[in-house]
Design goal:
By secondary structure, this protein is an alpha+beta fold. It has 4 helices and 10 strands; from the N terminus they run αβαββββββββααβ. The chain has an 8-stranded antiparallel β-barrel. A hairpin with a 2-residue loop joins strand 3 and strand 4. Helix 1 packs antiparallel against helix 2.
């Protein structure tokens, strides 16, 4: 693949699957309730259009996008996460995409959190040579930028089993919706989307078709 193709792949995938998970601040500052794996079930339509273009040009799709979140040492205001997806060309698996990132807590305004996002290493592990992990340019215009996030609930309570993040770049809002479960039905998805406070992210959120089922 030409260098432009590699850059396009890494840009779109890093944008599409990097969920930003915010630590809820309790008295102990514990992140334990948020450790584990989250699944990307929604993206804004502009991200979806980029993924479709990627498929049209290179025949590559990102299946089962998911993120593992964990705390960072003794810093309760930082969260490290690893985002992955399975790369396929048609029905053939061609490798695994991985992006390392972290976020830092800046402030909270009501239910909305403001975060400083830091992009880390982006790699692809080829299916035919899994020991030869290949680094990619992360494709981001900036390695550090401000994003927003808020928790969502399928039961309208404090059991926060979903989270949304969004940010604005060149007057366009890009966002992703993440869920605790690997699959989601239409009614649950729509219920979560209705809770998003940012109108642009809410009105343009579509389901991720390449789920984990």
């Amino acid at each position: 693949m030409k260098q432009f193709g590699i850059l396009a792949v890494s840009t779109v995938l890093a944008t599409a699957i990097n969920g930003l998970f915010v630590p809820r601040q309790d008295q102990e500052g514990s992140l334990s309730d948020f450790h584990g794996e989250w699944y990307n079930v929604g993206i804004t339509s502009n991200v979806d259009a980029m993924l479709d273009k990627l498929d049209d040009q290179y025949g590559i799709r990102c299946y089962c996008p998911r993120t593992t979140i964990q705390g960072h040492d003794n810093d309760s205001e930082r969260a490290d996460f690893t985002s992955t997806c399975d790369l396929r060309n048609g029905t053939d698996s061609i490798g695994e995409f991985t992006s390392e990132s972290y976020v830092e807590y800046e402030r909270r305004d009501g239910d909305r959190y403001t975060l400083e996002y830091h992009q880390g290493e982006v790699t692809v592990r080829p299916e035919d040579d899994p020991q030869n992990e290949k680094p990619l340019p992360n494709g981001m215009p900036d390695d550090d930028f401000e994003v927003y996030s808020e928790f969502l609930s399928t039961n309208n309570d404090d059991n926060h089993n979903a989270i949304v993040f969004w940010g604005t770049y060149h007057d366009q809002t890009y966002g992703s919706l993440y869920y605790r479960e690997s699959s989601i039905d239409d009614n649950t998805f729509n219920h979560l989307v209705e809770q998003i406070s940012d109108s642009s992210a809410k009105d343009n959120m579509v389901r991720v078709e390449e789920g984990c089922d």
